[in-house]
UniProtKB/TrEMBL annotation:
Predominant subcellular localization, coarse grouping: periplasm
A Pfam short name: Lipoprotein_8
PANTHER family registered for this protein in UniProt: SPERMIDINE/PUTRESCINE-BINDING PERIPLASMIC PROTEIN, SPERMIDINE_PUTRESCINE-BINDING PERIPLASMIC PROTEIN
SUPFAM superfamilies on file: Periplasmic binding protein-like II (SSF53850)
Keyword Lipoprotein appears in the UniProt entry: yes
InterPro entries found in the cross-reference section: Sperm_putr-bd (IPR001188)
Keywords: Lipoprotein, Periplasm, Signal, Transport
Domain of life: Bacteria
Compartments, record wording: Periplasm
Official protein name in the record: Hypothetical lipoprotein (MG045 family)
Length: 123
């Protein structure tokens, strides 16, 4: 009887450990890397804001696949992001909407360690 309890405890412990490792690995995936291993950047922007040829050039030079979605109003963009179920690496709202998104906790801070060339921008 002791062997059965001991074996059950070991199996349960191993299962929980593997489950924990799986959760840890899911949360530590590289940003911008999808399950197929390709780099992908998802942008949500105003329609006709970026020339499609520029996006193609960016993809060719960087190797990133760009998923480019557009919106026609700040309010439509806000509603879609607020509802959730979508993931955008970059969204381009107008200035007043940024404050509204900040108040609704819809923005994440930039990770300056992952960004290069920040010295070229005015604070």
């Amino acid at each position: 009887m002791k062997k059965i309890i001991w074996l059950t405890t070991i199996i349960l412990g191993a299962t929980l450990a593997l489950f924990g490792v799986n959760i840890f690995l899911e949360h530590t995936e590289n940003v911008g890397t999808k399950n197929n291993g390709h780099q992908e950047l998802t942008i949500y922007n105003w329609g006709d804001y970026i020339d499609p040829n520029l996006l193609k050039k960016f993809q060719k030079e960087t190797g990133y696949k760009v998923d480019y979605e557009t919106f026609d109003s700040n309010e439509a963009m806000f509603t879609k992001i607020q509802q959730g179920g979508t993931h955008y690496d970059l969204a381009v709202p107008s200035d007043y909407m940024i404050q509204k998104m900040k108040a609704a906790n819809l923005l994440l801070p930039l990770d300056h360690e992952k960004l290069t060339g920040l010295g070229n921008y005015d604070k």
